[in-house]
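step 3/5: co-fold with 2,5-dideoxy-2,5-imino-D-mannitol
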Amino acid sequence: MENASLENQARTRLPDQHRPAYHFLPEKNWMNDPNGLIQWKGQYHLFYQYNPNGPFHGTIHWGHAASQDLVHWQRLPVALEPTPGGPDEGGIWSGCAVDNHGVPTLIYTGMDPQGQQGVCLAASPDDLLHWEKHPANPVIPAPPPDLREQAQGQFRDPFVWREDGRWQMVIGSKIAGRGGAILRYRSDDLVHWDYLGILMAGDEAQRKPFWTGAMWECPNFFKLDGQSVLLFSVQTDPGELLYPVYYVGEEVGSGFEPSGSSILVHGNSFYAPQVMCARDGRVLMWGWLKESRRPGAYRQAGWAGVMSLPLALSLLPGGKMRIEPVEELKSLRREHWHFEGLDLGPDFAGLPGGLRGDCLEIEAVFEPGPSAEFGLGLLASPDGQEQNRLVYDCARDSLVVERDQSSLNPEVDREPCQAPLSLDADGALRLRVFLDRSVLEVFANQHTCLATRVYPTRLDSLGLDLFAIQGETKLKSLDVWRMESIWS
Ligand code: DQQ
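step 4/5: write tokens
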């Protein structure tokens, strides 16, 4: 145990205290969904929704970055831009990438000037830097005729994979008055597509176990440990972005029979994730971490939106999704602090040593007693005026990020973010927390994730501590690492 301050090491001299240091984001302007994840010639390629004209959603292009290690990224020139007079003049919205018999090919949503959404293709000669749009674009101009009226123009975010020697696609849509819908298509050449039917449709009136809104976007349909998983993001009418959800089940013919489901990431920030099946067999996923400050604040900052950490997915016995930050991120760990065997009860006076920092990874194992309530304080000013509290409440089976004191700025979202969470079978709570300035990603007991954004105003809001609210909890171990920036 060291009597240490992370403060000097933790803050590089960036003028912007909210800008993340080890999450990917463009140099400036707006970004949202991850798109077109693909491995090509030894590199991971990440495309993303990007507005080169400012920090607001508009004139959407595809930004592009590449990485050899999933951790450090090279920003590359914009990959796709709207073609004046073309079917994507209104924006290059979300989509995916495939290896079309040696030709890297992007399959994206073309938005025409009237807001009509269709499926478009672009291929690269080889380098993934130059892209040629297909002359037949849009290869699917609109939803199938029998759904056209009910889809109300909502038809986007194609996700394509190869199965049984043919191309398969799922795409997001809605059935007005009924709920969201995922449609399924098939093709031999990526250009001509047969509509196979609705893979799954929602019920807007149903609220339990969670609400699935009115429109489903950014679908992913993939195999995970022998099961089929359908994952998509839920939007309300008129257009509030809720959360990503997943269903685990069996593919039956061209249909899907789910047997379990859950919200993928809780909190109000993580949205529109996309997965890729990596060559080493891992299923990797990134999501967009939205801002929760006002547009005026991010316009002033000059940037909006961050990519989540790269996450690896697998299935736990019982069908829950295990979601873990990739191992490669451990290469960013620097100074390390370790504590063990502390009693968090009425006499607990806080961690010795005054730990401080805003770019941290934290691993903690707690053994709570009956009805215990306890937690971790983050980004706290020395007088406690600003602070975020990650609280676990055994009586309520609930993990919460309390943000009511997260910022002296009254204009940022300070609603609590909550996730239902029971303790592990052995009675332990295992937390992995990644704090990267305004980004907070929490992974609990390997399967419950919570992501949110926090915007302290004070430069000394850096304190990290543990606290007990009620009952007795044993801290089995706490490890804290300062995380290095990914940008040199
Ligand atoms: N964002 C894109 C859409 C997608 C939505 C537009 C989800 O293609 O449906 O930027 O964030």
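step 5/5: annotate
The mean pLDDT is 95.
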